[in-house]
Amino acid sequence: MDKEIRLRFAPSPTGPFHIGGARSALFNWLLARKTGGKLVLRIEDTDLERSSRESEENIMNALRWLGLNWDEGVDIGGNYGPYRQTERLNLYKQYTERLLAEGKAYYCYCTDEELEAERQELAARSQMPRYMGKCRSLTKEQTASYERAGRKPTVRFKVPAGRQIVVNDLVRGDVVFESDGIGDFVIVKSDGIPTYNYAVVIDDALMRITHVIRAEEHLSNTPRQCLVYDALGFARPVFGHISLILGKDRTKMSKRHGATSVEQYRRLGYSPKGIVNFLALLGWAPNSEQEIFTIEELVKAFSMEHVAKNPAVFDIDKLNWINQHYMRQMSEEEFFEAAKPHMIEKGCMTGQEDGEKLAWLKKVVYTSKEHVAYAAQIPSAVAMYFDDDFDFENEQASAVLTEESVPTVMKMLFEQLSHMESIDAANVKGVFKHIQKTTKLGGKSVFMPIRVALTGNQHGPELTEIIPLLGLERTIARIRRSLEKAGVMSL
Ligand code: GLU
Fold it and tell me: 119 C-alpha to center of ligand 1: Å?
């Protein structure tokens, strides 16, 4: 039997969970589920200043919200723990001692100022800034004198000269790097904390990770990591670097392009199904034209062979189009639940309503079901049911009310509606028919003034939807007010 596929998602808990991180997590999750392999969630918290437990929790909550579960990780444990890097310091230390003893790494006492001076010198000679190996072969005396001076050393990896490092990448094929372009890099900082390029290798090796699927920005780190794998005698995993995510203007996705964190999209009321569907298409394309995928369909269809090399473009219109599909798929209850926090935030409801008021709110909210891309759009989509004090959208609209036939139309409307026990779409339709028949007016001359008088706008939902929701009193009150505003004799 082939060995088990083991994948990992290894976020640094240093801030909001970026949509790109979610995409990496999703690709790993899809592969794990497709192959029957395992997904490990490892927390890379070696940046002590920027890492926080709060951010770790946010990431896990966002993953759960998206429906991306894991098989081993900080919260659930597993056979290869601990799964938080700061709890693995002893492990890293053992390997560092080995590398030092084998002469594959060395202590470096250079100060930040010395390193900066070296960088500037190289830059002045138009050479690539890199560490030139000043501390590679310190004598015992030099070491002792640095120690006496109280300098705290880092540990640097001794990069072998003249080597070609070939990274086999599932997305990019063989990518060749020259070791001569890489200076001896720090693997352990002076406070004893390992650097990313070092800890990641030990973790991936000890956690038996077979496939490292991550963002393209880590491709340039990979040759360093390969050198560490080789030096420690670990087999390298298969790598797959998935393309950058660009904004529509083809610059790197950033805050300028709108919401960038999963949390922001959650707050805007996007469906996790919509986000997952959209993220899957960021860099991966199916064999077919299909764009709407359930998560089960994604697991079936996904493969690294169809992951593209070129950058993925984050197209918010596409996300909205996809998400609208999932909004429409919601049951009315689900849709109302999605709307609720947004309706409360905009002051359209308190959340304490019951009885008739609640039933009315539900009906109002449902009217927007086919028209919104995400839940935060709902309050403005239904605003007209709350605002009796609206303005006309323009002069053209108010002019509609000055037509000669308007008072007759309105009078008939009032009269007909007043006789009804309850107002619904069917009998409103009947009223319109009656008015048209009696006055011999065209449809537009009947509908348009009523629409403008009720909403201030010449476009909008069906009147047969609006009038039953406004009810008799508000319908009459709105029409009276609008006629007055338009300077038409009051009824
Ligand atoms: N902690 C790294 C990051 O968040 C993970 C990189 C990797 O997957 O190797 O970018």
Answer: 26
DSSP class of residue 138?
-
> How far apart, in whole angstroms, are the C-alpha atoms of residue 236 and residue 229?
6
Q: Are 408 and 419 in contact (CB under 8 A)?
A: no
List the catalytic residue out of 34, 158, 252, 255: 255
Q: Does domain 6-85+245-313 have CATH number 3.40.50.620?
A: yes
**How much distance in Å is there from the Cα of 279 to the middle of ligand 1?**
18
- pLDDT tens per residue, range 51-98: 999 999 999 999 999 999 999 999 999 999 999 999 999 999 999 999
Residue nearest to atom 6 of ligand 1 (CA): 10
Report the separation in Å between the CA atom of 237 and the middle of ligand 1, taken as the mean of its atom positions: 15
Residues with CB under 6 A from ligand 1: 10-12, 44, 200, 214, 218
Q: What is the pLDDT of residues 140-166, one digit of tens each?
A: 999 999 999 999 999 999 999 999 999
Peptide bond into 82 cis (omega under 30): yes
Phi/psi-derived region of residue 357, left when phi > 0, alpha when psi is between -120 and 50, beta in every other case = alpha
CATH class of the structural domain 88-242: alpha beta
Structure tokens at 314: 């984050």
Residue 401 burial (10 A CB sphere; 0-12, 13-18, 19+): buried
> Count of alpha carbons within 13 Å of 261, Cβ hemisphere only?
12
pTM above 0.85, yes or no: yes
Active site residue 300: no
In ligand 1, the atom with minimum distance to the C-alpha of 215 is 8
Domain 395-485 part of CATH 3.30.1490.20: no
Q: Alpha helices of 212-268 — where are they, by DSSP H?
A: 222-232, 262-267
* Domains of the chain, residue spans: 6-85+245-313, 88-242, 331-374, 395-485
Return d(Cα 456, Cα 222) in angstroms, integer: 61
Dmax over Cα atoms in the chain, in whole Å? 111
The C-alpha angle with vertex 468 and arms to 344 and 387, in degrees rounded to 5, equals 40
Q: Please give the angle made by the CA atoms of 361, 365 and 370, to the nearest 5 degrees.
A: 160
Record the tokens describing residue 373, joined without a space: 């891309």
